[in-house]
Amino acid sequence: MKVAAPVAKRGKELLLFPHFGRAPYFAFAEVEEGKVISVEVVENSYKEQEHGRGGGVLGLILSRKPECLVALGMGERAFEQLAEEGVKVYFYPSKEGEMPPLEQAIEAVVSGKLKEATEAVEAEEEHRGHHNRNEE
């Protein structure tokens, strides 16, 4: 199974990024028998783009053909387009300002702790304009 996620880097650690479209990177993890066997990290070249960012980000994700995506939140349009393409979306719960480790979020998806989302959920920081969290 391939799992996609919007992420930031902190050292060698990958963390879920709160603003889906402005994530510095997207991670694509190959999971077999409940374990991550490889992770491809792709820079989000659309993160600074004001117009048309969503289409570029979705194209980037869909080109890698993930079965599912785990995020802290995303807008309704992105959610609907992923669902139309058959990508299952899972929202990982976190406290305001928290950026949980990618491996922890993937484990929650694989173990069944997270339920597939049926509607978009905005991450807390999406509405506050915290776009300068590109930690690296």
What is shown here, in short?
With 136 residues, the protein is of the alpha/beta class.
Fold topology:
Elements: E1 2-10, E2 13-16, E3 25-32, E4 35-43, H1 53-63, E5 68-71, H2 76-84, E6 88-91, H3 102-110
Parallel strand pairs: 1-5, 5-6
Antiparallel strand pairs: 1-2, 1-3, 3-4
Helix pairs in contact: 1-2
Question: What would you note in describing this structure?
Answer:
This protein has 3 helices and 6 strands; from the N terminus they run ββββαβαβα. It is an alpha/beta fold. The chain has one domain: 2-Layer Sandwich (Nucleotidyltransferase, domain 5). Strands 1, 2, 3, 4, 5 and 6 form a 6-stranded mixed sheet that branches. α1 packs parallel to α2. It is globular and about 40 Å long.
Distance between the termini: 28 Å
Structural class: alpha/beta
The CATH topology: Nucleotidyltransferase, domain 5
Total beta-strand segments: 6
Shape: globular
The largest sheet is: 6 strands, mixed
Order of helices and strands: EEEEHEHEH
The overall pLDDT average reads: 88
Using the coordinates above, name the CATH class.
Alpha Beta
The structural domain count equals 1
**What is the radius of gyration computed over CA atoms, rounded to a whole number of angstroms?**
13 Å
Q: pLDDT below 50 for ≥5 consecutive residues: which ranges?
A: 125-136
Give the fraction of residues assigned to helices: 10-25%
Output the CATH homologous superfamily: Dinitrogenase iron-molybdenum cofactor biosynthesis domain
